[in-house]
Amino acid sequence: MTKTSDTFISENPLTIDVWRGNMVESRHQVHAVVTDADGGLLRQWGTIDDPVYLRSAIKPVQALPLIESGAADAFSVSEKELSLACASHTGEDIHVEAVTAWLDRIGLSVNDLECGAHWPSYRPAERALAAKGQEPTAANNNCSGKHTGFLTTSVHLGENPKGYINLDHPVQKRIQKILEDFTDLDLSNAPMGIDGCSIPTFGVPLKNAAMAIARFANPEKLGADRAAACLRIQNAIAAYPEMIAGSDRLCTALNGSAKGTVIAKVGAEGVYLAALPTLGLGIAMKTADGNTRGVEAALGSLLDHFGLMTDEMKAAMSEFTNPVLENWNKFKVGKIETHLEGSGL
Fold first, then answer.
1. Quick check: 344 pLDDT over 70?
2. Which of 61, 135, 169, 281 is the most exposed, having the fewest neighbouring CB atoms within 10 Å of its CB?
3. What is the DSSP letter of 136?
């Protein structure tokens, strides 16, 4: 393990080699940065100043207004539901049923969700739904838990929930403000796009994203109420990792086996953010080609670099972070290797 007080900076991104037989068939490049909660730079690979859409990786921070507004307590939101509010879930029954029951408790229905509908990403759940002759609803959307959290906050504060996905709605104004608090940025001038679930997504440099998730990991300077909210979400994700993702997903395997030493969340287009509460650090990563396979392998290597990968974590995460590539006959045909320049690994 390299001492966390040492600083390493490389202009070269992390290299992820995909081997088939005795040849590298593909290569992913991952830009990555590690900072503390004050923005102090510890590790850098590649470019960290260019804006990146954080997508779903920032969901644990986006969930904070659900607690800070008093909505979570007013509607008895459980730990399981708090984890679901941070989820990019697989559309399994445990997710859909939880979303539906939660909406009913706040006096709304699936029809009030504005995230859109798509088939479950978990193939058995997709096949089961099709076998029933049913079409997916917005509850099957991987972001339906986050959106239910948005609606809960809006209902609690007496706002009209309609149009809550729009930039000028109070729900999104709260999200923008909390992201500005955590990143030290004025996001009114930042690049902006529309996420897959239709809410605004802001371009944030990786170094600011790492600082944001480090503050989530080590919130002691954020004030007592916000610190308590951060810890409450950390505990919920660690207690109910199946709700933040689902079957056959790294987020579930990692958050479940780490037991609170790492709180990590994936985002679309190869983004990953990881809070390291025991070290007070944050990791922000982005695969240049948008491939999730590359960033998952790189994340495992970085966690190992900081001495956080227990035997339990390695076993739970190996199919994602150190996968053996197989063909349809289950023949071993290749492997994936991560090269951490300057780490000695």
1. no
2. 135
3. P
CA distance 60 to 79: 13
Asked whether the beta carbons of 174 and 153 are under 8 A apart, the reply is yes
In this structure, what is the dihedral angle of CA atoms 319, 324, 330, 332, given to the nearest 10 degrees? -170
Specify the DSSP class assigned to residue 70: S
| Domain regions of the chain by residue span | 8-339
pLDDT digits (tens, 9 = 90+) for 212-257: 999 999 999 999 999 999 999 999 999 999 999 999 999 999 999 9
Element (DSSP H or E) covering residue 203: strand 200-205
Write phi, then psi, for 6 (nearest 5 degrees): -70, 145
* Token pair in block for residue 126: 């997709």
Res 3: pLDDT: 42
With a CB cutoff of 8 Å and minimum separation 6, the contacts of 272 are 57, 264, 265, 266, 283, 284, 285, 286, 295, 296, 299
Contacts by residues 229-233 (CB-CB < 8 Å, ≥ 24 positions apart): 229/64, 229/67, 229/68, 230/64, 232/67, 232/82, 233/60, 233/63, 233/64, 233/67, 233/82, 233/86
CB atoms within 10 A of CB 110: 18
Backbone angles phi, psi at 237, to 5 degrees: -65, -45
C-alpha span between 209 and 224 (Å, rounded): 22
* Whether pTM exceeds 0.90: yes
Give the whole-angstrom CA distance, residue 54 versus residue 204. 7
Interval 22-76: pLDDT, tens: 999 999 999 999 999 999 999 999 999 999 999 999 999 999 999 999 999 999 9
Write phi, then psi, for 27 (nearest 5 degrees). -145, 125
- How far is CA 125 from each of CA 35, 89, 101, 130, 238, rounded to the nearest angstrom? 39, 12, 19, 9, 24
- The residue type found at 291 is N
Q: Which two three-digit tokens encode residue 285?
A: 């990563």
From CA 103, how far away is CA 144, in angstroms rounded?
10
